Amino acid sequence: MNILIKSAQIVDSASPFNGKTMDILIENGIITSIKSKILPEKNVKVIESDNLHVSAGWLDMQVNFCDPGFEHKEDLESGINAAKAGGFTGVAVMPSTNPPIHSKSEVQYIKNKTAGAIVDVYPVGTLSFKQEGHDLSEMYDMQQAGAVAFSDDKKSGANAGLIMRALLYAQNFDGLIMTHCDEKAISNDGKMNEGIISTKLGLKGIPALAEEIMVNRNIFLAEYTNASIHLSNISTQKSVELVKQAKAKGLKITASVNAYNLVLDDSLLMGFDSNYKLNPPLRTKADIDALQKGVADATIDCITSDHRPQDIESKDVEFDNASNGMIGLETFFGLMNTNKGKIKLERLIEAITARPREILKLKEVKITEGAQANLTLFNPKADWTFTKTHISSKSTNTPFLNTKFTGKVMGIINNKQWNINKN
Fold first, then answer.
1. Which end of the chain, C or N, has fewer beta carbons within 10 A?
2. In sequence order, what are the residues at sequence separation of 6 or more whose Cβ sits closer than 8 angstroms to the Cβ of residue 210?
3. Using an 8 Å Cβ cutoff, are 90 and 375 in contact?
4. Can you state the angle between helices 237-248 and 208-225, rounded to 10 degrees?
5. How far apart are the C-alpha atoms of 150 and 139, rounded to whole Å?
6. Is 1 a residue whose pLDDT tops 80?
């Protein structure tokens, strides 16, 4: 079906139409015309709405779809549904499955099961075999099968020698190492950020130092090996400073932050709501301020949802025993746009479009005539209330039910398919 998008403001710093309100005609999946006014013809689906904006399709570098092995929490189909509801046309799925994505067969399973979907699903292979942190995984074979990067997800890689060897080995085939930064000997099974709030609540704290010492170590390893490394989930003021200093030295460092760490602080745990139990934990307002500045000046390259579904048995328990994580795809844009603070809309969009694709070495998405249509439609000024009807995930571990947001996803177009959100 051919599609005509009417009167949409284009948000794409790489497009000559950036900031302009245009009509966009898509025929057989290709953008064939971008003009100030295009008259609709027969057999054309017209999409129009108040204050309609369009950008390149959004890409989330860090989601968990739990498939294979934990399909009771999420599977590839429900994960794709959550992604398209949240405005994402691409996601990189982390390897914390059962079995983990640690060989080409698991990569092929993900690729084959999601082939042709409206959301592009990119597998991230494990860094170590079975995520055990001892031996390197079959990284080259996985890349040849379609893996876009290598990570042990929230297992931070205590073995510095393994990370060093991974960085050296990956250079042979231009592979990307992504690593979570958490020195377990310091965080030591803490439950929330160490500070005034943890003291008031009597909960074991996770010092910021646990992250920062590992950020520093991984920067040193990247410098020694002259390799690229991506630091996922940074959450503290000092981590932002360390990344900024490393980039100023010309090191091949990139970094991402989770949306919740850009918006929510640790005072929200006063009610012991286990949906706020996260890894990394919610930090302080000073950390949030530094993280927002880091995104605004591009010290932090990307923003991720860290979509991490958990079943009710994992969350509806005592806070100490609850699993970390919240679902985040469906609420991502509403949460970020409502609370973006120092981050301008154009920079927010860049952090979920051009920059993650560049880091993962994926094909650039452009809003130009002749380009394949890979688009997200949204209204940054629309007010709405998030309810259970907006959840497409199998899991409901979110603290945002009945929360009012400003900024709504209208739909996506990708792979010759389109989806318009109805609620």
1. C
2. 182, 183, 184, 186, 187, 190
3. no
4. 10
5. 7
6. no
| Residue 306 is among the residues annotated as catalytic for this protein | yes
Question: Can you count the helices (H) and strands (E) in the chain?
Answer: 14, 18
Reported residue count of the chain is: 423
pLDDT of residue 420: 94
Ramachandran region, residue 29 (left: φ > 0; alpha: ψ -120 to 50; beta: rest)? left
Q: Which of 306, 311, 316, 383 is catalytic?
A: 306
> What is the per-residue pLDDT for 41?
84
What span, in angstroms and rounded, lies between the C-alpha atoms of 66 and 27? 35
Of the candidates 209, 190, 211, the one whose C-alpha atom is nearest the C-alpha of residue 201 is 190
The residues, any chain, with a CB within 8 Å of residue 67's CB and separated by 6 or more, are 74, 75, 76, 79, 97, 110, 113
Distance CA(132)–CA(111), nearest Å, equals: 24
Classify each residue of 162-201 as buried b or exposed e, where b means 16 or more C-beta atoms within 10 Å of its C-beta: bbbebbebbeeeebbbbbbbbbeebbeebbbbbbebbeeb
Cis peptide before 99 (omega within 30 of 0): yes
Q: What is the pLDDT of residue 42?
A: 83
Q: What confidence score (pLDDT) does residue 158 get?
A: 75
Domains and CATH numbers, the chain: 2-54+368-420 (2.30.40.10), 57-359 (3.20.20.140)
C-beta atoms surrounding 141 within 10 Å: 14
How many whole angstroms separate alpha carbon 357 and alpha carbon 343?
20
Q: Report the chain's terminal Cα–Cα distance, integer Å.
A: 23
Residue 53: CB atoms within 10 Å: 20
Q: Tell me how many degrees the CA angle 297-301-302 measures, rounded to the nearest 5.
A: 120
Confidence of residue 380 (pLDDT cuts 50, 70, 90): very high
The H or E element spanning position 81 is helix 76-85
pLDDT tens, position by position, 223-241: 999 999 999 999 999 999 9
Q: Which amino acid is at 353?
A: T
Mean pLDDT of all residues in 12-40: 94
In sequence order, what are the residues at sequence separation of 6 or more whose Cβ sits closer than 8 angstroms to the Cβ of residue 188? 204
Contacts with 48 (C-beta within 8 Å, 6 or more apart), sequence order: 5, 6, 7
Give alpha helix (H) positions in 86-201: 104-114, 139-145, 160-170, 184-187, 196-201
